[in-house]
């Protein structure tokens, strides 16, 4: 069964989508939340396979909720399900770590297919979102690999440069050892280096460490 957490502040939307999802033989909605803060709490507590996340909610919006979930649990798979397609919502949501991006106007069957595809490791984007991302990629030229690093990844890279072990990094920034290992792997991949030593050399060479 694909375990799903649905976070949306509109009860009727939750009822409609949950009913359709629950009717599927391979999907189980294990919990619902009506705001981002509660969504983060349930996501980290239940560790569902898929998190369906609305964007505009009280207490905490979906972008911040997604960011916090991914920060604490990098392997989480978040599907944004929203009514918004403006740049101020799309890019921040994907940069926060959302895996897929769907619209509430999508057919229920399309959302189900997105759940299954995302669970299988694929990324599902509305055609409009794909177009926006392609345009942005053409416009944005990354001059240096480290420009792709997140703030947390830069923080961890600097700690690596200080000679700290993964466990020491975990203790310093208050995250799990497993999460540190995921960040380190992402850092090496983005910097296109093979090991921590090369990452440190890169850091000094590009002025990240003085």
Task: Tell me what you see in this structure.
With 210 residues, the chain is of the alpha/beta class. It has 2 domains: 2-139, Rossmann fold (3-Layer(aba) Sandwich); 145-205, Arc Repressor Mutant, subunit A, CATH 1.10.10. It has helices spanning 11-22, 36-46, 62-72, 87-96, 108-119, 127-139, 151-161, 166-173, 177-191, 196-205; strands at residues 2-7, 27-33, 50-53, 78-82, 100-103. Helix 3 runs parallel beside helix 4 (87-96) and helix 7 packs across helix 9 (177-191). The radius of gyration is 19 Å and the shape is elongated. It starts with a strand and ends in a 5-residue tail after the last helix. The mean pLDDT is 91.
Shape: elongated
Q: What's the helix-strand series? A: EHEHEHEHEHHHHHH
The number of domains is 2
Distance between the termini: 50 Å
Organism: Anaerobacillus alkalidiazotrophicus
GO molecular function: DNA binding
Pfam families: GerE (PF00196), Response_reg (PF00072)
Protein name: DNA-binding response regulator
Q: Layout of helices and strands, plus pairs?
A:
Layout (H helix, E strand, L loop, with lengths): L1 E6 L3 H12 L4 E7 L2 H11 L3 E4 L8 H11 L5 E5 L4 H10 L3 E4 L4 H12 L7 H13 L11 H11 L4 H8 L3 H15 L4 H10 L5
Parallel strand pairs: 1-2, 1-3, 3-4, 4-5
Helix pairs in contact: 2-3, 3-4, 7-9, 7-10, 8-9
